[in-house]
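Students often ask what a 'structure token' actually looks like in practice. Rather than answer in the abstract, let us consider VOC family protein, a protein of 130 residues. Its sequence is given first.
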Amino acid sequence: MKEITGINHVGLRVRDMQVSRTFYEQLGFEFIVGPVGPEPVAIIEHPSGVNFNLILNAAADAPQGNVLMEEPVKYPGYTHIALEVTDGQAVAARVRDMGITITEEVRFEGAYFFFIRDPDNNVIEFHQPA
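Now compare that with the structural description of the same chain:
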């Protein structure tokens, strides 16, 4: 469809708004509003325009793992979001300085990308294209 102009937001189900808000603010996201709506949702946005809706209804006793990434059976669904960066090495260094674990790093045909997990094990890729 030619009417699609981009991604409006990504929804992430989380257990604790304050924990997730603090994590994403470290990455440069700004709190916009929330909780709002019947779900409820908190909205955060990065100055680049990337918008996340933190869906605040995850069960506190839900398994800690990520069923789409860690189970031997590969279920269908969204596995991660990739945020494009201009200097992957610099971003990786800042992420490490924040005490965030990089779970995987890849260099492939001139591209560099790495993965982290948020407090609810949602996977985030930082991607520097070749």
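One point worth highlighting: The longest strand covers residues 30-36. Ask yourself how you might have guessed this from the sequence alone, and why that guess would often be unreliable.
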